[in-house]
């Protein structure tokens, strides 16, 4: 499904990528076993995957894509692409968002930032935010959630319709504890949990069905490739489960003779060879009950038709 | 000397210039020696390498030099002067040449409060914003002035987490760091080195550490040996980043140099 998202083909208004920091794999821990370095978020929490995915997404999308860069590495990596792609609009949210240098440049949120360099003929756009963790703290968690809601529903006047919203959030960088990430996930129609090169995708379809997938990815030369999940073959059901016939005080199963008799039984609603010639048209059979109040008179007899 | 540390961590690579580096100190470790080594790299190591590459014997100031602006929060300016002197770097003489400037956090805080004519309740709530705003303004002015005279500039902030105990909230501090990151787009050849103390017990420090780590291009982590004390090893140093190969080293602080070695090779 990551490839579908990358090709801008997934019908989902809000796709949220959550980067989870974990301890480095055993190959990256060193001789000094007492030392546990901080998790290397740049490699392991999926932010590199997100940037790689966004690059391909911009190339695949026919609509204008506005990227709100809340991390400098995003801006630096997407800047060369801006020269090639005319449908890419980068917003530097680090330089003077709060108007400390130039008070006239003060911005209030995501939408006000987008409107600053929005072409007049833009009716539908895609928006990418990398990452939400920064504005959650610097703008406010509540304000951000409200703006995200407005962007998904496109309820703001004088704003183009936002066809798709892609956001990345660091799972360990959310105000009010990591449990509050649930509020953001609730808004999203597709949630991609990235953890140690594994993506767990939960996609809510418009009808209400939920699709869950797990994919493993490898990054090489700035491109990601999907790999078969290692160890996903389902193991056989453990034999310690209790079967009904082991605990029931009566016989649950049928003997061969009983099964044969059961198969021979013709139930009233079953079609048999006798009425096969009547096939091809519908017919209603009604067998009145003994207690039915059956009236043979025409109910419309008194009408002058 | 500091060259061993800089070379071992791969921080002498060209891509490290005009980038942001987070220095995280964990536990009882003190990362001020890493900052002193960075100062040595900017003021001596980098320009010497460039001169050698161009076949020059003596560096020509302003063409190849990197000026350093240091904001001291936890340790005093005198601490860094003494530490740098042991690495063969005389900050006093360099500041006379205009290559080195320092700012004291406490001085700026007291100045920013003294500019307030009346201290209302609202002002008290906004104290943190006033502090970081005036701090950023004075740093930006100094950096722009240094950039006029020198090829590149390096901003070093020691223990930025001390702002949290000076009435600045996490939000205000994160906005301040955002603005510092924004300076990297505004000023060419600017490198940014910010150190902070990370404690798993204090949520605000943990968040600050994670924020800095996500915001920076490279991360240097300094931590003590968790197995106890060793006469051969002072602690652990690790580096990670986009283009640098990650690695962990043990270090030993000697009187006039920082000795680096692979874990388990302390006698080499």
How would you describe this structure to a colleague?
The complex is a heterodimer of chains A (305) and B (268). Chain A has 305 residues and is of the alpha/beta class. Chain A has ten helices and nine strands. Chain A has helices at 2-6, 41-44, 47-60, 72-84, 110-116, 133-138, 141-153, 181-187, 244-247, 256-264; strands at residues 14-19, 64-69, 88-92, 124-130, 161-170, 190-195, 198-204, 210-220, 223-227. Chain A has a nine-stranded mixed sheet with strand order 3-2-4-5-1-6-7-8-9, with helices on both faces. Residues 24-43 and 232-237 of chain A have low confidence and may be disordered. Chain B has nine helices and nine strands. In chain B, strands 3-2-4-5-1-6-7-8-9 form a nine-stranded mixed sheet, with helices on both faces. In chain B, strand 7 (235-241) and strand 8 (247-253) form a beta hairpin. The two termini of chain B are 17 Å apart. The mean pLDDT of chain B is 82. Chain A binds chain B through residues 21, 28, 30-32, 34-38, 40-43, 47, 70-73, 75, 92-98, 100-101, 131, 133-134, 137-138, 170, 172-173, and chain B through 20, 24, 26, 133, 136-137, 140, 170-171, 174-175, 178-179, 181-182, 184-186, 198, 207, 209-211, 213-215, 217, 219, 221, 223, 225-227, 236, 238, 240-242, 246-248, 250, 262-264. Chain B: This is Elongator complex protein 6. Chain B: One of its GO terms (biological process) is tRNA wobble uridine modification. Chain B: Pfam families: ELP6.
Q: Tell me the overall shape of chain A.
A: elongated
| Shape category of chain B | globular
Strand order of the largest sheet of chain A: 3-2-4-5-1-6-7-8-9
Helix content of chain A: 25-40%
Order of helices and strands of chain B: HEHEHHEHHHEHEHEEEE
The N- to C-terminal Cα distance of chain A equals 66 Å
- Evaluate the radius of gyration of chain B: 19 Å
Q: What is the string of SSEs of chain A from the N terminus onward?
A: HEHHEHEHEHHEHEEEEHH
- State Rg of chain A: 31 Å
Could you list the spans of chain B in which at least 5 consecutive residues all have pLDDT below 50? none
Number of strands of chain A: 9
Structural class of chain B: alpha/beta
Largest sheet of chain B: 9 strands, mixed
Largest sheet of chain A: 9 strands, mixed
């Amino acid at each position: 499904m990551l490839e579908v998202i990358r090709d801008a083909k997934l019908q989902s208004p809000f796709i949220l990528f959550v980067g989870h920091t974990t301890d480095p794999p055993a190959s990256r821990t060193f001789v000094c076993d007492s030392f546990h370095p901080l998790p290397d978020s740049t490699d392991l929490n999926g932010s590199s995957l997100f940037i790689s995915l966004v690059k391909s997404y911009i190339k695949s999308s026919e609509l204008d894509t506005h990227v709100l860069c809340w991390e400098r590495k995003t801006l630096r990596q997407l800047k060369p692409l801006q020269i090639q792609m005319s449908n890419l609009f980068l917003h530097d949210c680090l330089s003077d968002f709060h108007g400390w240098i130039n008070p006239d440049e003060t911005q209030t949120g995501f939408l006000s930032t987008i409107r600053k360099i929005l072409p007049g003929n833009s009716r539908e756009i895609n928006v990418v935010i990398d990452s939400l963790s920064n504005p959650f703290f610097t703008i406010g968690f509540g304000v951000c959630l409200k703006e995200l809601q407005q962007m998904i529903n496109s309820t703001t006047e004088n704003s183009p319709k936002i066809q798709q919203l892609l956001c990345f959030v660091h799972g360990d960088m959310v105000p009010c504890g990591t449990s509050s990430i649930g509020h953001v996930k609730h808004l999203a129609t597709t949630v991609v949990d990235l953890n140690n090169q594994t993506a767990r995708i939960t996609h809510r379809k418009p009808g209400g069905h939920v699709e869950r997938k797990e994919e493993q990815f490898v990054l090489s030369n700035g491109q990601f490739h999907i790999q078969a999940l290692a160890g996903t073959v389902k193991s056989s059901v453990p034999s310690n489960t209790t079967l009904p016939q082991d605990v029931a005080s009566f016989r649950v199963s049928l003997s061969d003779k009983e099964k044969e008799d059961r198969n021979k039984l013709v139930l009233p609603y079953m079609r048999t060879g006798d009425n096969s010639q009547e096939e091809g048209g519908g017919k209603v059979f009604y067998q009145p009950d003994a207690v039915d109040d059956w009236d043979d008179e025409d109910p419309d007899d008194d009408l002058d038709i | 000397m500091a060259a061993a540390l800089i070379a071992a961590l791969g921080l002498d690579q060209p891509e490290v210039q005009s980038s942001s580096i987070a220095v995280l100190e964990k536990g009882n470790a003190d990362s001020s020696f890493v900052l002193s080594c960075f100062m040595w790299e900017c003021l001596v190591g980098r320009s010497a390498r460039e001169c050698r590459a161009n076949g020059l014997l003596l560096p020509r100031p302003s063409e190849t030099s990197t000026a350093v602006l240091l904001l001291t929060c936890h340790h005093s300016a005198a601490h860094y002067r003494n530490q740098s002197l042991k690495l063969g770097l005389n900050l006093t003489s360099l500041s006379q040449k205009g290559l080195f400037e320092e700012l004291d956090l406490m001085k700026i805080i007291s100045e920013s409060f003294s500019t307030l004519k009346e201290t209302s309740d609202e002002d008290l709530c906004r104290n943190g914003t006033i502090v970081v705003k005036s701090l950023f303004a004075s740093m930006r002015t100094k950096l722009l002035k240094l950039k006029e005279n020198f090829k590149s500039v390096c901003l070093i902030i020691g223990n930025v987490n001390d702002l949290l105990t000076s009435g600045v909230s996490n939000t205000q501090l994160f906005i301040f760091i955002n603005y510092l990151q924004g300076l990297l787009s505004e000023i060419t050849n600017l490198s940014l080195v910010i150190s902070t103390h990370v404690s798993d017990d204090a949520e605000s420090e943990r968040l600050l550490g994670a924020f800095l780590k996500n915001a920076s291009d490279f991360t240097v982590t300094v931590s003590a040996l968790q197995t106890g004390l060793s006469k051969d090893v002072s602690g652990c140093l690790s580096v990670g980043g986009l283009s640098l190969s990650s690695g962990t080293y043990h270090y030993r602080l000697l009187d006039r140099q920082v000795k680096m070695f692979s874990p388990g090779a302390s006698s080499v």
